[in-house]
Amino acid sequence: MITESLLRSYAALAVRQGVNVQKGQLLVIRAQVDSAPFVRLCVEEAYRANAGEVIVQWQDDLISKTAYEWADTEVLCQVPEWQKDREQHWVDRGYCLLNISSEIPGLMSAIDAAKIQQVTTARRRALEKFQDYTMSNQGQWCILAIPNPQWAQKVFPECDPEEAVDRLWQAILHSVRIDGRQDPAARWREHDEKLARQSEWLNRQQFTSLHFRNGLGTDLTVALPEDHLWAGGAEKTQQGIVFNPNMPTEEIFTMPMRTGVEGRVCATRPLSYQGKLIQNFWIEFEGGRAVRWHAEEEEETLSRLIEFDEGSCYLGEVALVDVDTPIFRSGLLFYNTLFDENASCHLALGRAYPMNLKGYQTLSEQQMKDRGCNFSMTHVDFMFGSEDMRICGVRADGTTVEFFRDGRFCIAEEK
Is 315 helix (H, G, I), strand (E, B) or coil? Predict the structure, then answer.
């Protein structure tokens, strides 16, 4: 049974460990209208934490679907100046952002993919400069999720809606280390420290590339830029405020060299993109660029993702996830990237995180590009980890270190 006490613990975790709202700071919450009961708890907790103001930006994916069905594409592509002014106003006030996700898997499956792509491209282009606020950690941000009946029954098809929602709530709270007994904040500090130790080990190695192999067909080499940085768990804003951008999170990640990816990667979990589920797919890379791909379901959607813009056919993130995590051990397929990416090593097509390059604060966009950083209007993770995944790091002198075996971090062995 999901009690109000557990939900209040989740709200407190989101506000105090997730975005870590500061005294007097503006907090913007983006959430579905059906999430209102939980949003109210987050608003209350934010004011208890001395937030200066809390603004809720309501969304309704079902209404959005109806708009895609009936409205003209030209209308949906419009981004009025007042929306840009609002975003700029929030940036000027140094806001933090809490995104409470509650997606319905496959909601847009019957909508024309070309229309979705055109609208998404237009809106992202209009608001592109504001994306950098979170991507470069100018302010705190956090994304987490709560159930809805449609999503819950996708995960638990054998259950009636009420039972499915309850079970999905349990799975979500378990994934974010809330059990009603132990202090979740203390558990998260311990977890963040573990991820930091793994990142620090990799940062000391400064591998020039990683080689991924498994029995499903992945044989991929990912070159890494000089002075790349691994990160994971808690992050810091450019002003030094600690926050947790993803709840749950089990990954450590860095940026690939834009033109340094070679080989084939086979996805191990479905990818939910623009309301559609891409299933059983692979991608081949040459010179960093995706050149061939195939999906058993929604191949057209996969093509539109890869061809979204100039940078979407290159990788912007490589992330390592040990299979000994709560999400993987649950055995559940969440049909939601926030969760499924934390059960599996994953890659992201599109924009890289500037924070994964040493000294990024002083570099221009062109200087970052010259050092191998990818830029795009999109950033979409897909999962390729498995229980037999092996990863070798290659040093500048050509020596290799296998540090990941059978889907788990292992003691490094030089070869």
Answer: strand
Contacts of 11 (CB under 8 A, 6+ apart): 38, 41, 42, 44, 45
pTM across the whole model: 0.90
**347 CA to centre of own chain:** 10
For residues 124-147, average pLDDT: 93
How many CA atoms lie less than 13 Å away from 311 in the CB half-sphere?
21
Strand partners, 29: 56, 98
Tokens representing 21 are 């709202």
Q: Are 301 and 281 in contact (CB under 8 A)?
A: no
Beta bridge partners, 318, equal 254, 347
CA gap 237, 227 in Å, rounded = 19
Distance CA 70, CA 49 (A): 43
Query: What pLDDT, on a 0 to 100 scale, did the predictor assign at position 415?
Result: 42
- DSSP string of 210-265, one letter each residue: EEEE-TTS-EEEEE--TTB--B-SSEE-TT--EE-SBSS---EEEPPPTT-EEEEE
Backbone angles phi, psi at 157, to 5 degrees: -65, -20
User: Region 73-94: what's the mean pLDDT?
Assistant: 97
The C-alpha atoms of residue 153 and residue 170 are separated, in whole angstroms, by: 14
Structure tokens at 116: 């979705």
End-to-end CA distance of the chain: 52
Band (pLDDT 50/70/90 cuts) for residue 86 is very high
Judging by DSSP bridges, how do beta strands 276-286 and 261-266 pair with one another? Answer: antiparallel
How do residues 317-346 score in pLDDT, each as one tens digit? 999 999 988 899 899 999 998 999 999 999
pLDDT, tens digit, 9 for 90 and up, residues 35-79: 999 999 999 999 999 999 999 999 999 999 999 999 999 999 999
* Average pLDDT across the chain, whole number: 95
| Residue 170 identity | Q
Nearest to 313 by CA among 258, 382, 273, 355: 258
